[in-house]
TrEMBL record:
Coiled coil: none annotated. This is NADH:flavin oxidoreductase/nadh oxidase. It comes from Treponema primitia (strain ATCC BAA-887 / DSM 12427 / ZAS-2). GO terms for molecular function: FMN binding; oxidoreductase activity. Residues 4-321 form the NADH:flavin oxidoreductase/NADH oxidase N-terminal domain. Keywords: Flavoprotein, Oxidoreductase.
Length: 322
């Protein structure tokens, strides 16, 4: 019988258990890793989390006004090296999540060029962005690749492409936001092109042995959202191209406060059809249900964020109770 505390292998990484700290925003100092971030990850490492995904990290200086970690040039390298060294001293893994925000802006956007697949008002921020050009698409894909290589050189065990939660790569998949008529819009194949090409650019930069993950939405929570068939297409293409793990997430708004394992049904289907590691994130609070999922489906890992914010030592407590 499989156990949530099994030691597993994912590519060249050894994972101490099946618990993944899912990304949640941190509070850096002008994009730099600071003492509060180091304290946070030290607490998670001491608390038993086997593998941690950082809060989203900016790949482009154009978005530097947003209050989150950044790695768009080498001036951020030293802080990231300190962070990875700290986590590794506890024999844990750390994955750097990379993001381009787009029209789902956070913080001061004055004087910035806000880009999106199409010039469609953002449902959350009410920002009307500029439609991104193909030249800008290629530039941003290279920004992801450059940041991924910096992450590798800084000692991260891998990177995660943030293609969920309404940020730029997620919007390319969503018909509501993507109304393009070119090779990046229309069909599922075209709308998936941005995420696939971003992955390919990263893989070319970091090589075959470095772990590359992606986080995707299986639901957007509004009309004209991404379809599950579109999601299956994206997962199939990425799996065939060598993605190491796919984290399953989506819109939480439709779930009650008592709901658990929010995207189980979708993650089960994706895991059944794709020979890559699937991480189920969202509402993972019932250990019995998680253990049952582990032993009756092909889902291998479980992402947790808010629960670990409340109790950084939660994983140790769960282990003690078993």
């Amino acid at each position: 019988m499989k156990n949530l505390f099994d030691k597993t292998q994912l590519g060249k990484m050894t994972l101490e258990n099946r618990f993944i700290r899912a990304a949640i925003g941190e509070k850096p100092t002008l994009g730099q890793v600071n003492e509060s971030i180091l304290d946070l990850y030290q607490g998670l490492a001491k608390g038993g989390v086997g593998t941690m995904i950082t809060g989203f990290t900016l790949v482009d200086e154009n978005e530097k006004n947003f209050p989150m970690m950044a790695f768009y040039n080498d001036t951020f390298s030293e802080g990231h090296k300190i962070l990875t060294g700290l986590v590794h001293s506890y024999n844990r893994n750390i994955i750097l999540q990379l993001v381009y925000i787009g029209s789902y802006i956070m913080g001061d956007a004055s004087g910035m060029t806000i880009l999106a697949p199409s010039a469609v008002e953002n449902l959350n921020t009410k920002v009307v962005p500029q439609e991104i050009t193909v030249e800008q698409i290629k530039r941003i894909q290279q920004k992801f690749a450059d940041a991924a290589l910096r992450a590798k050189n800084a000692g991260y065990d891998g990177i995660e492409i943030h293609a969920a939660h309404g940020f730029l790569l997620s919007q390319f998949m969503t018909p509501h936001y993507n109304r393009r008529k070119d090779a990046y819009g229309g069909t599922a194949q075209n709308r998936a092109r941005m995420a696939i090409e971003t992955y390919e650019a990263i893989r070319k930069a970091v090589g075959a042995d470095f772990s590359v993950w992606i986080k995707i939405n299986v639901t957007d929570g509004f009309e004209d959202e991404v379809s599950f068939d579109d999601v299956l297409y994206l997962c199939k293409e990425l799996t065939e191209k060598g993605i190491n793990a796919i984290e399953i997430s989506g819109a939480f708004s439709k779930f009650t406060k008592d709901a658990t394992c929010f995207f189980r049904k979708e993650a089960e289907k994706i895991a059944m059809e794709n020979n890559t590691a699937i991480i189920l994130t969202g509402g993972n609070t019932d250990i019995k249900e998680m253990t049952e999922i582990l032993n009756t489906t092909k889902i291998r890992y479980f992402g947790m964020a808010r629960a670990l914010m409340k109790e950084p030592d939660l994983i140790n407590k769960i282990k003690e109770e078993q």
